[in-house]
Write a structure and sequence with these properties.
Helix 1 runs parallel beside helix 5, helix 7 packs parallel to helix 8 and helix 14 crosses helix 17. Helices cover about 30% and strands about 20% of the residues. The longest helix has 18 residues. By secondary structure, the chain is α/β, with parallel strands linked by helices. The chain contains 19 helices and 23 strands. Helix 1 links the parallel strand 3 and strand 4.
């Protein structure tokens, strides 16, 4: 379905929420950069403060620490294990962890220092229930959920009940686990994000798997996605931002040679400053997905862009031919090269000297249906009708309300009285004979363009290759037997007036759409509404969707681009009460009364209509 207008509904894709007072995260906001100090402070609060200030000066949005209640996080045997390694701060693992663990009073002081003296957001990872209670008590703006705890759904649920935003890493996890985490948090609130992460220190590029970011964005489109990196350097993190990460986290250190397992996978403060600067440059360069001529290109376009110029001295009133025109870098600028074909057949309103630009106000364009040659160009209505339509044998000529299905579209086209010819393109002789019986011309379609996998575009191309005299096509669907003649006339007028390259039929849709579930364990997500702000249907203008009744387009644009819905496009609204589409055997029974009423309303039983287009 082509969605053209989302009305007043608030979309959930690219959701945003406040990660700290006044700071939003989401697709339309700057990347939120977390400097993970962790336990790289060497157990010294003064070093921790020095790191906080350095992170702020480097441009980080947030500094993050790690909070544990050591006796709750580890069992006795783990704490008693000898820890005689170069990175150790004690004889046992328990002594090592307790040396690096700040007291609650120290955390309160660090938070005050960060927020009041330095002016940077302060947060922490909590590794046990008491740590979570403490962090909630001191009102950190968000919980950072460390990778080892992501599979612990009871712990995730405990955090989510605090109703504090959550930034959730995903190292050592799989997609099935992340779906369970999503569902667990979603029961309580929707202010959370997933970070792609590989738990190795340092991680090699081949194990980073940045494409998981894209998978998360597809799988969980209503939450922000980010990246927590343990690699060396900044290149991979920049790639994460380019792929859509809106939160990034990197470990930082004052000295990579210091004791501790995280220092070797951490950024120096100079590297952090470089990363922040490059992220901001990258964000600015991502720009918009729309491809348009930019203001900054205007000067270069005037200097290097080409224009149509005259070949030989051309006189006022002269009808332009191909040999009268060429394309050059020219001063002043004039018609761009893509207007070359449009100029052929037009007439000059003033003299133009040899090698001079064709001024844009010196041309009278030919009418859209004027070929500029002896034979008149034609606007043709075209019905594609395969003999082997899927599902219903002989569907296109099956009787409905006393006439073959295809006849009703032909009769509506005749009633519209705005087309030069009516054609039915089919690989079935019987369909062709029925078409001719009701006043249409029969084009014998190449069977290779009439298979179950053939596209409409292939059918158009095959037809137009044999009919170069046709400048515009109205592809009318014979499976819509309730075509409205006045709507066909309105749509055709937009093409004939030269204002549009494509016009199609549309109708409002008041359906709340959800993403498909295509694999075991996958969840569905709203696509065009926010369940928290679900509107009443009667208060919602609705989406605009194609009705499929007809598609009208200029032949030249279609042949140039391969698309019959490109360039200058608009729609004409169908009457929703009369619209019907025949796709299954049951549809014929449901449509019988509608077609009968439609035929009476528009006088489609008038025998004079069978003599061809009016």
């Amino acid at each position: 379905i082509l969605l053209l207008n989302r009305g007043e509904m608030e979309l959930t894709k690219g959701a945003e929420w406040e990660i700290a007072p006044g700071r939003l995260v989401g697709d339309n906001h700057p990347t939120f950069i977390i400097a993970e100090i962790g336990q790289n402070h060497q157990g010294d609060i003064n070093i921790a403060k020095q790191m906080i200030r350095a992170c702020k000066e480097a441009g980080a949005d947030c500094v993050k620490f790690q909070k544990s209640t050591v006796d709750q996080r580890f069992n006795k045997r783990c704490l008693a294990r000898p820890y005689d390694v170069p990175q150790s701060w004690g004889k046992t693992y328990g002594e090592h962890k307790k040396f690096l663990e700040f007291s609650e009073e120290s955390y309160v002081e660090l938070k005050r220092f960060a927020e009041e003296e330095v002016g940077v957001i302060f947060s922490a990872s909590g590794f046990d229930h008491s740590a979570i209670d403490f962090l909630a008590k001191i009102k950190i703006p968000f919980f950072k959920v460390p990778s080892p705890d992501v599979g612990n759904l009871e712990f995730i649920d405990y955090m989510a009940q605090k109703n504090i935003p959550m930034v959730i890493s995903s190292g050592m996890q799989d997609m099935a686990t992340m779906r369970r985490v999503y569902a667990t948090v979603k029961r309580h609130h929707d202010r959370f994000a997933f970070l792609q992460c590989t738990s190795a220190y340092p991680v090699t590029p081949t194990n980073v798997n940045l494409r998981v970011i894209q998978s998360y964005k597809r799988e969980f489109p209503d939450i922000p996605v980010g990246y927590s990196g343990h690699e060396t350097g900044t290149t991979i993190t920049l790639g994460a931002v380019a792929l859509g990460a809106r939160i990034v986290e990197r470990h930082v250190t004052l000295d990579k040679t210091w004791k501790g397992s995280d220092h070797s996978a951490s950024l120096s403060m100079d590297e952090l400053a470089t990363l922040v600067r490059e992220i901001r440059v990258l964000e600015a360069s991502l720009g918009t997905p729309e491809k348009d001529l930019l203001e900054t290109e205007a000067f270069v376009k005037r200097k290097l862009g080409k224009s149509v110029v005259a070949v030989g001295d051309l006189k006022k009133g002269q009808v332009l031919k191909k040999e009268n025109l060429t394309i050059k870098n020219a001063e002043p600028t004039g018609f761009p090269p893509h207007h070359f074909d449009k100029l052929i057949g037009s007439s000059l309103l003033e003299d133009v000297a040899d090698d001079e630009t064709i001024p844009e106000d010196s041309v009278k364009f030919k009418a859209a249906d004027d070929s500029g040659s002896e034979s008149k160009k034609k606007f043709a209505a075209l019905i594609l009708a395969r003999a082997g339509s899927k599902g219903i044998p002989g569907k296109n000529i099956k009787i409905i309300n006393g006439k073959p299905l295809i006849a009703w579209s032909i009769l509506a086209i005749q009633k519209a009285a705005c087309f030069d010819e009516i054609w039915v393109s089919t690989d079935g002789d019987e369909i062709g004979r029925v078409a001719e019986q009701y006043g249409a011309k029969y084009h014998r379609r190449d069977p290779t363009c009439a298979t179950d996998t053939s596209t409409s575009a292939e059918g158009f191309k095959e037809f137009l290759d044999k009919h170069p005299e046709i400048y515009a096509v109205a592809n009318v669907q014979c499976t819509t037997p309730t075509q409205e003649p006045e709507k066909l006339l309105e749509a055709a007028s937009y093409i004939k007036d030269g204002h549009y390259d494509c016009v199609f039929s549309a109708m409002p849709s008041h359906k709340f759409r959800w993403s498909p579930v295509v694999s075991e364990g996958q969840m569905t997500f709203p696509l065009n509404f926010n369940p928290l702000k679900r509107p009443r249907r009667q208060d919602w203008a609705g989406d605009i969707v194609e009705s499929g009744a007809y598609y009208m387009f200029l032949t030249s644009v279609f042949l140039e681009t391969g698309s019959f819905q490109t360039g200058r496009v608009r729609y004409v609204m169908d009457s929703a009460t009369d619209n019907v589409d025949i796709d299954t055997p049951e549809d014929f029974a449901r449509a019988e009364l509608l077609v009968q009423r439609h035929a009476v309303k528009y006088g489609l039983d008038d025998s004079s209509l069978k003599n061809g287009s009016a």
